[in-house]
Structure formats: structure tokens, C-alpha cells
Amino acid sequence: MRKGQKASEECKRKISESLLGNKNALGRIPSEETRKKISEAKKGIPRPDIKGIALSDEHRRKISEAETGKVISEETRRKLSAALKGRQPAFLGHKHTKEANQKNSEAHKGRSVGEKGSNWRGGITPLAEILRKSAGYKQWRLAVYERDRFVCQLCGCKGNGDLQAHHILTRENNPELMFFLDNGITLCKKCHERIRGEEDLFMECLATCDLTRVCASGGL
Length: 220
Known about the structure:
Blueprint: H1 9-19, H2 32-42, H3 57-67, H4 74-84, H5 98-108, H6 127-132, H7 135-147, E1 163-167, E2 184-188, H8 189-194, H9 199-207, H10 211-217
């Protein structure tokens, strides 16, 4: 085969078949002397410049499919760990300029959002979970806790890590009041569970600010 000529699929298949069962070819590890000879032979030969070449979507898809499901064996992990011991990361201590950071930011905008993200699973995350993780919800919850001084407004227990912010008017029926401070109240986890199914009674008593009557009457 001439230098620079690409092997056809038929040629690749014949080479593969000819090497089947050849113990001297498959799995053979070159000796240090052979490695040195190969290295010396390649010196001065320019390598193809692929820097800056963007991979096509088809190419990315093929790479993704080829790598999917691959599991690195424990032996390979051990060898990699031993080989990397003592090495320092190439960019350790290196700081990008503001211009470089800006370029990276612009280049990655929109690449990992929604369906383009690597963790995308078809939009299966419930809306309630998305809202609970939002910045707006976290700010509203903290504001409710601070207003109620981190105390459960039903049983009076102080914050012990089990406090929860409850929507008096449900967010399903009143989405416009989701982040309205007066529509929130601090409850402990136990009391929050007790009022499930009795939200209407809870709202009525809250409107009259007679929460102690609710607990004393056993209504919850």
C-alpha cells in the first residue's frame, strides 16, 4: 500500500481475517527497542493539525455510541493510577485571561441546556422538583423561615433541620401566589404530614390566626 493511501473496507476486512488466531500479532506488546525504533522513524514527520477543527454532529454521535456502555476494568484503573502518580496537571496554576474566559463562555452558551445537556433524560424531572431547586423558591423559603423565626407554627418546635415551608394556597391552583410571602408558613416535617388531606381546615384556622385551637381540638 502506498504512503498516504487509505485502505478500503474490503482490505481492512482481509487484514483482520488474516490476523485471526495469529498469536504473534494479536495482543502483542512491542518491546522497548521496537518502540524506540518507531519513535526515531517518526521524528521530523509533521503530525496532522486538527486543532480548531470542529467535529460534526454525526462524528460526535458515532463517538458517543462507540463509548456508551464501556467499563474500565480494575486492572486498567490500577495501571492508569500508577502511571499518573507524581504527575502534575498541565494547567495547574494556569489562569485564563478575561478575554479567554469570555470566549469560552460564548462558545459554550446553549450547548448544555435542555435536550443538548449530557444529563438530559427526555424531560422526566417533575415540575415540582424543578421549582424546589429554583433560586426563587429557595429565597421564598428562607424568607418564610426568617419571618416565623425558624419555629413550626403548629407545634412550636424550633428549627432542628426538619422545617418545611408550606404553601397555604396550593401552588397547583394558585401558581401566581407561589412566591408570595404571606402564602407561606413554617411547619416541621411531622406537622406538615399531619395536615395532608386537611388543607381546607388548615387554611380556615390560619385565616383566624387560631392555630392553637387546631392542635388542641385534635382536628389535625
